[in-house]
């Protein structure tokens, strides 16, 4: 897992198609795929990020008038695998047992 900007200190990338295309291409050339492919931990992590952002947005809507239910950032998760996902059963269990 890594930010598209390749900087954990500044994980944000401008939402411009040329910038995104170039950054994405640069990152793909640096990836090294390996096994086993366990997806559940990353899905759990992104759920935590979503919960954090939801709380942040709720606080912001209380502080700033007129910004209720607005989103100022979003996350995209790409899962690139070497083949079969090894933890399918736990992944299905996690997805079906959680309130999204």
Q: Can you give a write-up of this model?
A:
The chain has three helices and no strands. By secondary structure, the chain is mainly alpha-helical. The chain has a domain at 32-97. The longest helix is centred in the middle third of the chain and has 24 residues, at 40-63.
List the helices and strands and how they pair.
Blueprint: H1 17-30, H2 40-63, H3 88-97
Brief description of this entry?
With 100 residues, the chain is mostly helical. It has three helices and no strands.
Keywords:
single chain; 100 residues; mainly alpha; 3 helices; flat
In the predicted model, the low-confidence regions spanning at least 5 consecutive residues are none
Content of β-strand:
under 5%
Gross morphology is flat
Strand segment count: 0
């Amino acid at each position: 897992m890594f930010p598209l900007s390749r900087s954990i200190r500044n994980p944000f990338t401008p939402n411009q198609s040329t910038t995104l295309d170039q950054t994405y291409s640069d990152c793909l050339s640096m990836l090294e795929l390996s096994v086993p492919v366990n997806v559940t931990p990353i899905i759990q992590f992104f759920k935590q990020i979503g919960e954090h952002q939801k709380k942040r947005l709720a606080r912001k809507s209380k502080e700033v008038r007129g910004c209720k239910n607005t989103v100022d950032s979003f996350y995209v998760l790409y899962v690139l695998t070497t083949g079969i996902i090894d933890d399918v059963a736990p992944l299905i269990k996690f997805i079906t047992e959680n309130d999204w």
